[in-house]
Structure formats: C-alpha cells, structure tokens
Design brief:
By secondary structure, the chain is an alpha/beta fold. It folds into two domains: about 300 residues, 3-Layer(aba) Sandwich (Rossmann fold), CATH 3.40.50; about 45 residues, no CATH class. It has 13 helices and seven strands. Helix 7 links the parallel strand 2 and strand 3. The longest helix is centred in the first third of the chain and has 26 residues. It starts with about 45 loop residues before the first helix and ends in an 18-residue tail after the last helix.
C-alpha cells in the first residue's frame, strides 16, 4: 500500500521479509529468515555495542556540524547521512582491514569506521580539493559524485583482486572483498546494471550495498521500481537480501555474511538496506516540498541511535557516566571540526596542476608554465606578484 504522495509506508516495504535483529523498541528478535543472522552478532558484547553507539553518535555530530557550517557560508554544499548511521556503521564495522570500499558521497559513517579523519572530507565540500585523503591508508576510495559510476570501478577492482589470487585462499588476513555503496536512485543508472552483469558473470568478490533511503532527491522509490530493489540483484543471478537499515546489528550481520561469501570465492551479493534519509538530499534541497511531516516523524520514532540506546538500557548496559563522557567527546569533536574548517586557506591557483597525473606529464608541464606567465602578467608596477585571480572557493 502506498501513501498518496507515492511513498511506501514505513512498515510495508514491498511485503517482503526484512532481516531484523533489533526492533525499533530496542528488543532483540531473530524470527524466520533473520534467525541465522543472529549468530553473526553473538560475539558483540556490551562494550562492542557501546562502541557501535559511539560511532553513530560521532557520525551524527559530524553531520550536524557540517550542515551548520554550510549554513554559515563555510562550506559550499553538504550531503547529510542523517538517519542512515546504522546501515553505514554496521556494514563498515563488518569490513576487514584489507577490504576495499568504493563510496558515493554520503558515506560519512563508513569513512569513520575506516579510520578516516572526517575533517578531511570537508575539504571537498569547502571546494579546495576533490577529496584528498590517503585512499591506500584506509582502503577507502574518494567520494564519487557521478551517480552510480563507481559501481563499475568497484567491480573492476574486485575482478583484479580475484585475478591477483586474493580470494578463496583460506587466509583471513589475505582474502579480500570489495564493497560499493550507492543509493536507491543509482539503481536506475546503466552503470549499476552493467556492474551487476560483470560481477555476476565473473563471480567477482564485490558486495553491492544499496542504501534505500526512499528518496532519489525528490523522487520516491515507488516511482523508480515496481519491485523491491533487492530483486534487481536476483535478476542478474546475484544473491540478494533486504535488511532493516535502521538496525545496526542486522546491518552488521548481513554485511558480514556477504563479505565472507565474497572473500571465500562465493561471488557477489546485493544488499538493500531499507532506511530513511531524515535530512535533505543536500543542503541545497528542501524536502518539505515533496514529503510530509507525518512521514518524517514516523521515521524519527525509528531512529537508529535511539533504538540501540533502548537496547543498551534494557540490557543494563547503559552507563550514565560513560554517556556523559561521550557527550563531552562529541562536543570536543564538533569544536575541532569548526576550528579546522575556519582555518582552511584557499590554495594557490597553480595547485590545480599538482595531482593531475602521478608523474610529470608534458602537456601539464606546458600548461603550468603558461599559467605562471599569465599570473606574472598581473604583477604591479613595483614587481610584486600580487595576483588578481587567486583560486579557492568559500
């Protein structure tokens, strides 16, 4: 049953069973198809659960601070992952160090789990670089703004891993999987479908992790597909599963199984994490123009952070002193982010030539020399190189 605005009800995801291990009220559950996945999280003790809670709280604080900084004119644009923390943190914590991640542009929670300093992400949204973090240090590729194109990159990388003999060896520190993160709107892109073709036919060790936050900007999922999105994978012969993306435990368990299959040589998996984008598509979007307050409130009641807190409280694992320390850590994190962004200086215009190629290139060298002469032409009468066209964006 669909709402009048074309969206599906929160509790009616296509009439299909979803893997869920934690209800919105914070109770453990493992019925039907979810039962086998409970074993995947059995080793997560109270300390580990508090760790997942901390991850989600810090990622949300990052989201809040970055959004505020954009509103204050310090960032050009920012895409929130508000409401999607469980899908990202749960899946991210299931990754092994050698696994490689291809994100889109909203995977702040995954970046956090890979050890990336989230402040570095803001350089891209400040407009001073195109994503300058060390991808090899974190096995976390640069953000991709072109919708869906990186799924082909991920599949190609996975095929390379396979051909390098890093799959199915039985060595847990060597066997490698690849994960491509994308949204529901990306499933309509040709690149995603081509990636599924290559992954299926080559048995590539790649997990397609679709965060179905139900909105491709202003277009609801129900107007993009007549079947649940995880059926897309099945159409290509790829094992597929739908998970409650607001359940951090289920997101962890489903991803852990898919990664194990990939690393052991079992091939690709398509995961649809059914969640909700509680914020705007980006800070240039106004979601009140295409969805109702009532629907947003319904999903606020299914908040992934509140869900895990309720569970910790029910388990007697909630500690007010620890929670107070976490609040202080989040405040310090927010303060550091603000100071970091406000201290960013515009790079010289000549920096555009620095990382075009890994090594020197004749054409780039010639362009750099021309640009230097061009800038020198703005020197004032005293010979000072005071350039009128310094680069950088605020």
């Amino acid at each position: 049953m669909n709402h009048q605005d074309g969206t599906q009800a929160a509790h009616e995801p296509g009439g299909e069973e979803m893997i869920q291990l934690l209800t919105p009220e914070g109770r453990r559950t493992a019925e039907g198809p979810s039962a086998p996945y409970a074993e995947r999280v059995a080793h997560l003790d109270h300390a580990a659960l508090r760790g997942l809670y901390r991850d989600m709280v810090l990622v949300r604080r990052f989201d809040d601070e970055a959004t505020a900084l954009q509103r204050q004119g310090e960032l050009g644009l920012f895409p929130q992952c508000l409401g999607q923390e469980a899908a990202q943190v749960g899946s991210g914590r299931a990754l092994a160090p050698q696994d490689y991640v291809f994100p889109s542009y909203r995977e702040h929670g995954v970046a956090h789990t890979r050890g990336l300093d989230l402040a570095q992400i803001l350089l891209q949204f400040r407009g001073v670089d195109h994503g300058g973090w060390d991808t090899e240090a974190h096995n976390f590729h640069l953000y991709t703004l072109v919708i869906g194109s990186h799924t082909l990159h991920a599949t190609g990388y996975a095929m390379g891993v396979q051909r390098d003999g890093l799959v199915g060896t039985g060595d847990p520190e060597r066997d490698t999987a690849v994960v491509a993160y994308f949204g529901d709107g990306s499933t309509a892109q040709g690149d995603v479908n081509e990636a599924l073709v290559f992954a299926a036919t080559t048995n590539a060790p790649v997990v397609f992790f679709c965060q179905n936050n139900q909105w491709a900007i202003s277009e609801p999922t129900s107007r993009q597909s007549r079947v649940p999105l995880f059926h897309r994978g099945r159409g290509f012969g790829v094992p597929s599963v739908r998970v409650d993306g607001n359940d951090v435990l289920a997101s962890y368990a489903v991803t852990a199984e898919a990664l194990e299959r990939a690393r052991s040589g079992g091939g690709p998996t398509f995961v649809e994490a059914y969640t909700y984008r509680m914020g705007a598509h980006t800070t240039s979007d106004d979601p009140t123009r295409y969805r109702s307050r009532a629907q947003e409130q319904e999903w606020r009641e299914r908040d992934p952070i509140d869900r895990l807190r309720r569970h910790l409280e029910a388990e007697g694992a909630w500690d007010e002193s620890w929670a107070s320390d976490l609040d202080a850590e989040a405040d310090a994190f927010g303060e550091r982010l603000r100071a970091y962004v406000r201290a960013i200086e515009a790079p010289p215009a000549s920096s555009m030539f620095d990382t075009v190629y890994a090594s020197e290139h004749g054409t780039v060298t010639a362009d750099r020399e021309w640009h230097a002469q061009y800038e020198a032409g703005f020197a004032d009468a005293d010979g000072d190189a005071e350039i009128a066209t310094q680069g950088g964006a605020r």
